[in-house]
Amino acid sequence: MQKTYKTGPYDGRQAAPMNDSAPVRADRFDTKIAILLREDLETWQRLNVTAFLVSGLGREVPEVIGEPYEDADGVPYLPMFRQPVLVFEGTKETLTAAHARVLSRALPRAVFTSDLFATGNDSDNRAAVRAVRTGELDLVGLAVHGPRNAVDKALKGARMHP
């Protein structure tokens, strides 16, 4: 006889008791950091765009940054994000629609346009973005941070990066 359970049998994924040594699970964050990349980018472009996009979030949303690291020999390392960064991909149209939804929700964001592949410094990057109207930006990447539900709605139609 087969039994039906509302929740599956224990598989070790349930939350651990609350204490200082318990790791914080990704699904416990009420916010989300997400990157949306255009699906036609080369591998090196995907990596480059992702690195540039996430660099802006720490300054504008300092609460996403954790504490500094230190190894067993006492060598210090820079702090990193305190929560996972989820990477998605989509078509140019998906990226454009997500950008519009992110703007309408006033979520903290960073953009990377195709023009930035031809520039070599921050000043030229900012000038390249400033030269194009919002609706005409040739987006290849978008970073966003905000409440999980708002980010999920903003990235509707995107799929997890393989």
Please characterize this protein's 3D structure.
With 162 residues, this protein is an alpha+beta fold. The chain is 29% helix and 21% strand. Strands 5-6-1-4-7 form a five-stranded mixed beta sheet, sandwiched between helices. A two-stranded antiparallel ribbon has the order 2-3. Helix 2 (92-104) packs across helix 4. The protein is globular and about 50 Å long. The N and C termini lie far apart (39 Å).
Feature tags:
single chain, 162 residues, alpha+beta, 4 helices, 7 strands, 29% helix
H/I helix tally:
4
Which of globular, elongated, flat, extended, rod-shaped describes the shape?
A: globular
- What is the CA–CA distance across the termini? 39 Å
Order of strands in the sheet with most strands: 5-6-1-4-7
Helix content: 25-40%
Number of distinct beta strands: 7
Query: Whole-number average pLDDT?
Result: 86
- Outline the biggest β-sheet: 5 strands, mixed
Helix/strand/pairing category: alpha+beta
Question: What is the percentage of strand-forming residues?
Answer: 15-25%
Integer-rounded radius of gyration: 19 Å
Order of helices and strands: EHEEEHEHEHE
- The low-confidence parts are 1-22
SSE layout and pairing:
Elements: E1 31-38, H1 43-60, E2 69-70, E3 76-77, E4 85-90, H2 92-104, E5 109-113, H3 122-130, E6 139-147, H4 148-154, E7 159-160
Parallel strand pairs: 1-4
Antiparallel strand pairs: 1-6, 2-3, 4-7, 5-6
Helix pairs in contact: 2-4
